[in-house]
Amino acid sequence: QVQLVESGGGLVQPGGSLRLSCAASGSIFRFYVMGWYRQAPGKERELVAGITSGGSTNYADSVKGRFTISRDNAKNTVYLQMNSLKPADTAVYYCNAGTSMGVLGGAMSYWGKGTLVTVSS
User: Band of the pLDDT at 27, cuts 50, 70, 90?
Assistant: First the structure.
């Protein structure tokens, strides 16, 4: 029902910035909770940031103050602005959509295919 396509990943030096985008296909996008997850090599996938249909946000402690999640419902797009990037931020970043915060990231949520972010000198 919902298709998600991430973009904006790439190679960036420590301290640099990137903005990721997630374009969603559905006309009911504005009712979904959206999130960004990441998975580093050899590690479990983790929630980086989430945003509700009403605009409330939450962040992992590791990115708080550096990353900002936002959404543009008119464009069916969610963004992740990443500043002050560290090598530990290197991961594949995935967009996710769910009908509630409780299902975000779970079996009934929707996933994009991911975009790779590499932070290295």
Answer: confident
